[in-house]
Amino acid sequence: MQGARSCPYCLSTNTKDSSWKSSDEKAGRFWLKPVRCRNCHKRFVRFRRVPLALVGGALALGLASAVVVTFRGVDTRSKSEHEKLIAELEPMEAERARAHTGDPEAQYSYGMMLSQGGSGKAEDLAESIRWLERAAEQGHVRAQYELALAYKLGRGTLQDYPAAGRWFMAAARNGHVGAQYHMGRLHRIGEGVPADLIRAYAWFNRAAAQGHGAARGARDEIAASLKPEQLAQAQELSRASSMPDPDQPLPAAVVRPAERSGDTRGTETLADAGEKKAGTRPAVLH
């Protein structure tokens, strides 16, 4: 069985305590502790070790409060207060109950708890995939990205590169920078999607525009291997309002005679075509 501090990605026990990246990430997760793997450098969470005396004291205090309320013959605890108490004492069960209501954020959170903070058993990992799928199908971007990673790595499910490509694509279209970087990698080597350096450049370019350092380096490496007309098409595709599906042909840029003579007023680009279709000017990425 995987240890409490072992990495769920590479199973290494060489880990160290990490910290929350923001107050939003920390909110509502006081029972979890961020940990980083020294081997694969990925972050995950585990349950905090709570001293037995503290748990016993909390239970004793709760029991004393219940006795006082019963003795007085007054039931002052509302349903919402009861749910809060359950959430404090049994966080995974409380999150599971919220996930069953259909809330995609709760489904994502519970799926991640099973994947990163659970026992590490195969049944917990498989259950986490089912909850991530439910959230991803409702458009939850982080669930789409984590589900894609699970299919790519074969974690909790059979390794499935085409499925990974579909979910990375969904998250990338929704602006997830990590998914955009992975789409660039998939197209660069043809893993689950057709090998296509023009598409790879476009996805790396979009991720680099959001500050992804590795994407910037990969983009520049591909740029050095493209012909000038291919590079121009790749940059046009980067600026398009939407990216075509991996199995769909790339739209060709329309080059009119006016452009050949140096007058670009009559030139329609991929970005212009996207603007006409969507009714808005797409953001310019460099």
Automatic annotation (TrEMBL):
Keyword set includes Transmembrane: yes
Residues that span the membrane, as ranges: 52-71
Gene3D superfamilies: Tetratricopeptide repeat domain
Record keywords, A-Z: Membrane, Transmembrane, Transmembrane helix
Keyword Membrane assigned: yes
Bias kind Basic and acidic residues: ranges: 257-266
Annotated spans, Disordered: 233-286
Entries under Pfam families matching the protein: Sel1
PANTHER family in the cross-refs: ERAD-ASSOCIATED E3 UBIQUITIN-PROTEIN LIGASE COMPONENT HRD3 (PTHR11102:SF160), SEL-1-LIKE PROTEIN (PTHR11102)
Name by which UniProt lists this protein: Sel1 domain protein repeat-containing protein
Organism the protein comes from: Methyloversatilis universalis (strain ATCC BAA-1314 / DSM 25237 / JCM 13912 / CCUG 52030 / FAM5)
